[in-house]
Amino acid sequence: MNDGTLVSIRDGAVSFRVRSAGRGPHVVYFHSFHEGSGWSPFLDRLAARYTVHAPLHPGVGGSAGLETLEDVFDLTLAYEELLDALGIGTVTLVGHFFGGMVAAELAAVFPERVARLVLVSPLGLWRDDAPSEDLLILPREDLPAVLFRDPASEAARRWAAGPASEEENLAAQIESIQRRAAMAKFVWPIPDKGIKKRLHRIEAPTLVLWGDADRANPVVYAEAWQQRIKGAALSLLPGGHMVLHETPDVAAAAVAEFVGR
Questions:
Q1: In DSSP terms, which residues pair with 234 in a beta bridge?
Q2: Domain boundaries, the chain
Q3: Start-end of H helices in 86-206
Q4: Average pLDDT over residues 219-240
Q5: 45: enclosing H helix or E strand
Q6: 57, 107, 203, 259: least surrounded by Cβ within 10 Å?
Q7: Does domain 5-259 correspond to CATH entry 3.30.70.890?
């Protein structure tokens, strides 16, 4: 995986830092709130079979132009233009939580661009009786218990470990605030931006993945997504909300098996 290439659209008004690795058919991955680098061991596993591109959302990690994007629809258009800039035609999209919402919007608005769609605990639906946790504002010390099936696991400890130096730790905290604020523009305070009215437009074969102990985005939403996307398959994997980080081998194998069908 490289450090990322800056890819600009709209005459430079918006630019995406895109991290890429691997070879083979293209897969584009959209990250969520608490994936600092936008890359993970899960993507390393996928890159063994596919060319994986992981753009950082506008306002995150060197991607710019957030101020020019007004809403989710504008973000969706920008990502479709990014696919053109990358020279990618029809592609497999994978997205986690906020990234899952982005992937689903792309598949609904531009169905001809998406060959297969994998949504990992996607954000975007809402039930008053089962609200998703507001992961944007939870104190960092409270996050492991919400994000991970076992907050004492190696994956949770690795995720929670901060930089060694005080200067690096401060920089990491600032980056985290900026990252969450950038995505909050599109989903806060309630993430229901009407995607439920567009999911019927999705034509790509779709796999909905969920950690069976997801405390951030209740598992009751898994069936709702499956029911609203025609022909969608649903798979519950052992893990919490950060199932891609807790069981990267199992998750990557499930995605590869689905994409390779």
A1: 208
A2: 5-259
A3: 98-109, 143-147, 154-160, 166-187
A4: 98
A5: helix 41-47
A6: 203
A7: no
